[in-house]
Amino acid sequence: MKIKTLLSIFAIVFLGLIQLKSFAQIGINTTNAAPSPNAMLDVSSTNKGVLFPRISSSGSIASPSAGLLFYNTTTNKFNHFDGTAWQESSFGNQWNVNGSAISYSGGNVGIGAVTPIAPLNIFNNTKSIAQFQNINTGATASDGFLVGLNSSLVDASIWNFENSAMRFGTSNTERITILSGGNVGIGETNPTEKLEVNGNIISKQLALNPTGVSANANAILDMVGTDKGVLFPRMTTAQRNLLPIVTGLTVYDITTKGFWFHDGTAWQQLSSSWTTDESVAYTNAKNNSPVIGIGLTPLPTSTTPATPGGSVTNGRLQIVGSNNSDQLTIRHPNSPILRWGFYVSSTDSSLNFYYNGSLRANIDRVTGVYTALSDKNSKKNITTINPVLDNVLKLNTYKYNFIKSEDSDRKSIGFMAQDVLPYFPELVYHKKDRETNEPFLMMDYAGFGVIAIKAIQEQQAIINNLQTQIDELKNVIGQIKFQINK
């Protein structure tokens, strides 16, 4: 009986092996159902599972084939061979990661992160990046678009390897554009400059310079340049007058060719149309009137009451200086210390003339008399003048016209400096023409008043001496007459 049973079993196995080899399919079930035509092995059960080979380490399998599968009893996970190395296999809804494998657990996905802390968590010891590529970009490390942390583990990068623009948008509208050449547009999809903004900009502080220096701490706008200037808005007077009233608003008026600002009440000219062309007169000034004020807001040229009585017209150039300082200075072209200063005295309102800070002359405010400095305390090397009468008598007086005057002009009277020079050199000044550098002579006519007084004194001495002689002769004649009449 046992022998017959063994023979039956052998026959069944033999027939099964024949069938397996013939159809290359195996069906394992309790219902005798045929295997699925798409399956090499079809296992069906409602109360049993399949036990795969259980091995403690993949190292015990020699020369594994790609696709070989076993259950690792050390890690309690399935392992499969991918043709190169053993990999952990994941089943079900929970992803796990070991090494470079992907893991999904608790709603977060980690790439390189065993315990992901975000819906997508990428971790790498050298660089953590996500790189996007398509059929148009190529598939190398220098293709596509990259987002992540670079190898320094500090700097974050958004990097486009392609020669194409980067665009950022909100509400389905493009907001920021970076073109392939580096031009950035905010509200501008095709910027033509490094930064082009279509809209308003608010900045707490701004520095514009070619060296990258920070703005001065005391400046809200700090501009530095050696080969460029600043262009203000340029418009006509009519366009300027249409602008809203904003105190401090500044524009360049191309009609008047000057800068204008609004003081909250009216437009005022910031700077006038000064020119280096000597043939053009300056006619623009504050409040549209041809008046210039230095050290003050100029008064209008209309007449104003004077003191006492009468009226005066304010000048086109009005200068106010501080006490005891020059109000107008004319300097030597080559030396800042050689200068003439003009000063209206704060004491008596006279006009004073100073040279290098030393008083030289004065015009009295009451009489208009020109006076020169003559205080003894301001003089040194004082000597008396030698007799002058003989030399005065040698001088000729003339009437004449200057060469650069018309013959019909009033004639002048005076001396020839060349005649005066041998006798009174102190009154003759040697000068040179500023254009031709030719020498010429000038003369101190006021000094002749001193010479005249000295000559009168000498002449009076002669007169007094003659009077004495006359008196003596009269006395002798009187005595002679007395003797004759006896």
Main attributes of the structure:
35 strands; 15% helix; 5 helices; five-stranded antiparallel β-sheet; four-stranded mixed β-sheet; 486 residues; alpha+beta
Describe the structure.
With 486 residues, the protein is an alpha+beta fold. The protein is built from 5 helices and 35 strands. A 5-stranded antiparallel β-sheet has the order 27-28-29-30-31, with no helix packed on it. It has a 4-stranded mixed β-sheet with strand order 3-4-5-6, with no helix packed on it. Strand 14 and strand 15 (184-186) form a beta hairpin. The longest helix is centred in the C-terminal third of the chain and has 38 residues, at 447-484. The chain is rod-shaped, with a radius of gyration of 57 Å. It starts with a helix and ends with a helix. 3% of the residues are buried. Mean pLDDT is 82; it is low at 1-9, 11-23 and 273-289.
